[in-house]
Design brief:
This protein is mainly alpha-helical. The chain is built from 10 helices and no strands. Helix 2 packs across helix 5.
């Protein structure tokens, strides 16, 4: 009798346990849904924040590209990575640049233009100042400071080698910079003919650019490379400008 009563008691309790489990089911699903809602909400909020674009998207894109080049090199450069770093949509990026190569070209152009303008102001001083060595020295140091201060200033030089178009453009920029120095040399020393001045300037500028590339690529050796580069350029130019 006791065994039968015990089984009946257990059977009577079982539906209650089932009802308890069923009652708990919706609450568990509710908690799970609540967590999912929070995650979705956070994701939407983050996406919205990421779409708050800068006032000057092009400047932000070029800055981001330079930072990526400095940190990861050319292999790490992609339109997706650039857009994410610049906090712009890929659609906005494509409005200004069709691909990452166009971004790289624009970055190199902007950096080289800034360097050229800075150098030309120093070359003007070479033509007119009493001591040509001081502005020539400052031209070298200013070029190095620009490379180190601007995002992509160092790594964009290496990236030039990935594009024949960019490499050719860089060579033309070097020739234009040399032409600017040649004009300064002739203003300082009118007796030097144009052809000779052009040759002197091209050797001086090409050598300086190569040594600046070395200095900006290795911060541990930069100080003495710059020092020796200045000594070398002054020694080369002294017979013509003194």
């Amino acid at each position: 009798m006791k065994s039968t009563t015990s089984r009946k008691s257990s059977a009577a309790q079982a539906p209650s346990a089932k009802r308890t489990r069923k009652a708990a089911g919706p609450a568990t699903r509710s908690a799970t849904a609540s967590r999912s809602d929070v995650l979705r909400s956070g994701s939407k909020a983050q996406g919205t924040a990421n779409r708050i674009e800068p006032d000057d998207p092009q400047a932000a894109i070029l800055k981001a590209a330079g930072e990526i080049l400095d940190q990861y090199g050319y292999d790490g450069l992609s339109t997706t990575a650039i857009a994410r770093r610049a906090r712009v949509s890929t659609g906005t990026l494509y409005m200004h640049y069709p691909d990452k190569h166009a971004v790289l070209r624009a970055l190199v152009w902007a950096l080289q233009t800034e360097r050229t303008r800075a150098a030309e102001s120093q070359y003007e001083a070479i033509a007119n100042s009493g001591d040509w060595r001081a502005p020539m020295r400052e031209a070298m140091l200013a070029a190095y400071r620009l490379r180190m201060a601007r995002p992509g200033g160092r790594s964009s030089r290496r990236a030039l080698q990935t594009s024949p178009e960019l490499w050719d453009w860089d060579q033309r920029q070097t020739e234009e910079l040399a032409a600017s120095m040649a004009r300064a040399i002739r203003r300082r020393k009118p007796q030097i003919d144009a052809r000779t001045a052009s040759r002197i300037a091209l050797v001086a500028v090409t050598t300086s650019v190569a040594l600046l590339d070395q200095a900006s690529a290795d911060s541990r050796r930069a100080s003495w490379i710059l020092k020796e580069a200045i000594v070398l350029r002054e020694a080369y130019l002294a017979p013509y400008l003194d």
